[in-house]
Amino acid sequence: MRTLLISDLHLEDQRPDITRAFFYLLDQFQGAVERLFILGDFFEIWLGDDALTPTAQQVAARLQQFGDAGCSVFIMRGNRDFLLGEQFAEKCGAKLIDEPYFVELAGRQCLLMHGDSLCTDDKLYMDFRKMVRNPAWQKEFLSKPLDERIAFGKQARNQSQEDAKDKTYEILDVNQDEVLNVFREHRVPLFIHGHTHRPDRHQINIDKSNYERIVLGDWHRQGWYLIADEAELELRSFEFPG
Ligand code: MN
What is the mean pLDDT of residues 205-227? Predict the structure, then answer.
């Protein structure tokens, strides 16, 4: 079984180059992988399944096709597209999954997350997360007229850019204690997430056992994916097609 994992594409109408690069990746793997995991921030912003952008429509149709060629598609929400719902997942022929999600990859038990919950040093963000992940808040937000939702989205984006000016490089990365907590709590040898935009493979030794944390890359300037078969995992990047 071959599995493809991606995250942090941040798809939006203003960046057709990212959508093209995503379709280029799907073209290469169509019929050649049995599972595709999208680990959050698939879209730059999500205002509700009833407010699909042209990009979202195209992506749903293309994913549906990709799935029909013999692949199970799984979508996890990130901190930007946390409102993505069942209705859109269904349109993609995908299954919506929650974190933490467990799967076997390359013969190892593996834990999948988006990664924002690891950034506990970012107090401002953790407060925001608590608010918007509350089901009651989400229900109320999704019942607002679309123009109000758009206004909120813009404001949240500006606020997060404003706040980011005061945050150091370390604050925006994962908190190492939180990473250890995750390994200790779930007891898995492998942990994969995105969010930080710092693609890498980290080997960690805890209580004399070896663990690995793989961080997927974002698609701002190039594409990133992790490909796994029964024996191996490989983190790869590629240039956007011209
Ligand atoms: Mn994120």
Answer: 95
